[in-house]
Amino acid sequence: MGSELIYRGHDSQLATDSYSPKPIKPWFAVTQPIRYMLREQRLVFVLVGIAIATLFFTVIPTSYPASYGGARGHVAISDSLSYYPVETYQRAYNPRVGFGAVNSGGKIPLGLKRKGLRIVVTGGAGFVGSHLVDRLIARGDSVIVVDNFFTGRKENVMHHFGNPNFELIRHDVVEPLLLEVDQIYHLACPASPVHYKFNPVKTIKTNVVGTLNMLGLAKRVGARFLLTSTSEVYGDPLQHPQKETYWGNVNPIGVRSCYDEGKRTAETLTMDYHRGAGVEVRIARIFNTYGPRMCIDDGRVVSNFVAQALRKEPLTVYGDGKQTRSFQFVSDLVEGLMRLMEGEHVGPFNLGNPGEFTMLELAQVVQETIDPNAKIEFRPNTEDDPHKRKPDISRAKELLGWEPKVSLRKGLPKMVKDFRQRIFGDHKEGGAGATPDTTSSA
Ligand SMILES: NC(=O)c1ccc[n+]([C@@H]2O[C@H](COP(=O)([O-])OP(=O)(O)OC[C@H]3O[C@@H](n4cnc5c(N)ncnc54)[C@H](O)[C@@H]3O)[C@@H](O)[C@H]2O)c1
Predict the structure, then answer these.
(1) What angle do helix axes 408-424 and 359-369 make, rounded to 10 degrees?
(2) Which positions carry the signal peptide feature in this UniProt record (predicted)?
(3) Which of the four CATH numbers 3.30.40.10, 1.20.1250.20, 3.30.390.10, 3.40.50.720 does domain 100-293+328-355+390-406 have?
């Protein structure tokens, strides 16, 4: 049986060799090796194809058009992270929107409407956050406010209720949160000494765990992240005015450390996510800011003086009143934050008004604005209260084209009007929830 099979095989072979229905064409002879390779080396070709595709998809996304804010040109992500100074490092951000559309202002082709961004503002029901939300909504963006209402108030954002572009989530940033967004402005943190000293462990948790959670979110959804840090990272500065390059003089174990060191750690985390995970980040170091919607009685000097003068109480000056501070009106700060977010530079950037006032000079301006007969009362100074604070804003001027425009004498009356309405319940001109007039020029 076996030999029979072998025999038949030979037979058919012979038949094939002898039978040729058509003569072999010359082109067939030429393409035969290629056809053979295609047929026999299929696996090799599949692998080569995969390699080309991988190369294509890893190299192409790194060379973004300038309109995407791409200062990186053709540099691969890993290269740029290791070799480029952070400020020249720009990663293309979100193909859905493209930063160029936002950055460049005039770069959107005529007739094309700028696409709104989806933006989270943590701490958006607070003083600074609520003004930022107003500007973002006015610009046409969709805003999600995330706030635990520790120091924030619904009244600050109530005028947006019912607007489809506005959402409010009661949430503590110490707990993780997942949202699909393009940008994250991370402001959540009590800012006044009265509030941040109330529960110091919670304050440092908010700064560390809260920032970690928001950076994790930014990494996961590819959002750009902006941290609102503070001039407190300079501590009681030995350099005056303070430049961003100054590393500060901070007490790590004092009563203010939960805030100061918390913000310093938040900055560290932000830079580590940037360098290590390629997250697009921005850092603002905010100096004393004032304006409508500040917490009344929050212990911050401007709100203290204004509330005291309105209530006909003496203005309390701590220490000898010769310590200096700079005071920035909130609309200037919001403009700076937005420019920083849309711009190409990581920072940190000092955002503050370099105009320097002693506490006594400030008390005088408040007297002039509210009550010339208001008395001044001296009290012992608090621990670790810095003696001098004045921002050097040359970096923000040069790289963001930003500088404050509203002088203290122009800004203070707007805050006084808001405080008067809230303290005396005079809602005739619109309550605290209404959008106060924060547009002003110097
Ligand atoms: N206003 C200033 O002069 C100043 C100066 C330097 C830095 N900053 C920074 O700017 C940011 C905003 O300051 P502000 O003056 O608007 O303060 P604010 O207290 O008015 O606002 C902070 C907001 O964060 C919310 N918040 C606090 N902890 C939270 C948590 N764990 N989870 C969710 N929400 C939380 C509060 O409820 C509030 O709405 C803060 O990060 C602050 O450190 C402000």
Answers:
(1) 60
(2) none
(3) 3.40.50.720
